[in-house]
Request: fold
Amino acid sequence: MNDQQIMENILLTTKGACDLYMHGAIESSTQNIHQTFDGALGECLDMQNRVYTLMAAKGWYPAQQADAQQINQVRMKFAQH
Reply:
């Protein structure tokens, strides 16, 4: 396994953890539990962003720029609701 594959696995695992923390916060029955999940989610999102930033800097996570027409189509779609 090379460095890129390791980083991809870390990114996927981190995204999965973020998803679990988000659902934990949404489904929390008390404010204390909600705050705990919310704090963990924030930390996890920060970690995900750091991993993504490292991968993007190495060219391992290329991002495609959306053109203005695509952005406007999405904007219009959600403005109608």
